Recover the amino acids of this structure.
């Protein structure tokens, strides 16, 4: 299957500059292509996965992906998708984020070549920039691009206005130095991508074989944007979103969305995905499609060992056998649940519930204990006079409290 046909089947193509031309080029040879990412933070989130997993699909088909980290473009701000100016980062922040993102990309995607557009942008003087590149851009054309026109009512600085020139310069530089012929980006980047095509054709001639392809904005079946949770973004950094939380995000996807997500976020074949789609109809209670999705994406991003830990935590929390977790696994499993710090001294069970903010009053705490609603480290306790010694479990660092069937609290020992 031609890679373009595969991307089309998976629903990964939004716009193409020249479908026949790109298809013919790919049939002729292995190509070099790229996608850019600005260092606006120190971790990718799952929104970055789609374009980079698209590059990975090209890599597995024998092509050569490049990732441009925007040490230059990230320092001025991309107007795409924003209703106002981005906050300006210091160069120290930019450089920190460049290093963090580069390490993250290299850990996940082993076949990508990483480059930083600061390396070829910084040496260009202002007069050279205006004479060699600014002269090739028509202001009327730039104003008509949606990324700019959408900002005209509220205003846009000259700094952000020049962003598409710098991004176009990336494409031209990669074309000249590495024979990169395709740029891949999100749907909101179409104006920037086509500006790059225009610059190359003006600088190198209309015969230059260069192409642009965008990936659609991913929406859930109900029309809402995919990738956000009540707690915010789903990060690829395990310190920001633990592998267990990451696994659970994918496992909890709706039946209406899971097949679409399997196509886009896994490398499973059409036959394998068709079987999982059938399982949703015949045995939806088993959630086989969701489990497979969670396994595939977690393993790809975090590795086999992190997947095993995430599955172990999932099984333990389902069974209630909290003591089967290690101290490290407790920290991962209950990252983000309500938590309070308590002293390391033995404490009465009622007082523990108050100190951990499980209950607001001693009367309510006693009622919960006597009604069998309280479990400490997985064990149901019904005696209000019991004393709990924090030093006896999880290396003296944590007490896991459950009230009712699902409400967890974590006492952190000082």
């Amino acid at each position: 299957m031609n890679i373009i046909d595969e991307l089309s089947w998976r629903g990964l193509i939004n716009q193409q500059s020249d479908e026949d031309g790109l298809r013919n080029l790919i049939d002729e040879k292995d190509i070099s292509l790229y996608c850019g990412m600005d260092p606006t933070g120190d971790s990718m989130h799952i929104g970055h996965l789609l374009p980079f997993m698209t590059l990975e699909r090209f890599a597995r088909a024998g092509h050569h992906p490049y990732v441009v980290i925007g040490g230059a473009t990230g320092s001025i701000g991309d107007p795409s998708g924003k209703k106002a100016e981005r906050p300006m980062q210091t160069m120290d922040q930019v450089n920190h984020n460049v290093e963090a993102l580069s390490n993250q990309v290299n850990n996940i995607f082993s076949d990508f070549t990483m480059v930083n557009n600061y390396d070829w942008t910084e040496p260009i003087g202002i007069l050279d920039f205006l004479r060699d590149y600014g002269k090739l851009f028509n202001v009327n054309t730039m104003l008509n691009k949606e990324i700019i026109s959408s900002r005209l009512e509220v205003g846009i600085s000259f700094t952000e206005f020049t962003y598409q020139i710098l991004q176009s310069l990336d494409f031209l530089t990669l074309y000249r130095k590495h024979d990169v012929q395709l740029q891949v980006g999100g749907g909101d980047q179409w104006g920037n991508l086509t500006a790059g095509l225009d610059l190359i054709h003006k600088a190198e001639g209309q015969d230059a074989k260069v192409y642009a392809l965008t990936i659609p904005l991913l929406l859930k079946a109900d029309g809402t944007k995919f990738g956000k949770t009540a707690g915010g973004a789903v990060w690829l950094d395990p310190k920001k979103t633990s592998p267990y939380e990451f696994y659970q995000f994918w496992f909890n996807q709706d039946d209406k969305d899971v097949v679409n997500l399997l196509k886009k976020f896994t490398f499973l074949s059409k036959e394998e995905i068709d079987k999982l789609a059938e399982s949703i109809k015949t045995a939806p209670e088993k959630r086989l499609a969701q489990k497979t999705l969670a396994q595939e994406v977690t393993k790809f991003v975090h590795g086999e060992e992190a997947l095993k830990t995430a599955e172990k935590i999932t099984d333990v929390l389902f069974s209630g056998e909290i003591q089967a977790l290690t101290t490290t696994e407790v920290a991962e499993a209950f990252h983000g649940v309500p938590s309070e710090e308590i002293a390391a001294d033995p404490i009465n069970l009622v007082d523990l519930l108050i100190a951990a903010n499980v209950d607001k009053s001693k009367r309510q705490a006693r009622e919960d204990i006597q009604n069998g609603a309280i479990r400490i480290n997985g064990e149901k306790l019904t005696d209000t006079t019991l004393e709990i010694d924090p030093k006896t479990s999880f290396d003296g660092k944590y007490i896991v409290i459950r009230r009712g069937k699902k409400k967890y609290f974590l006492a952190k020992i000082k």
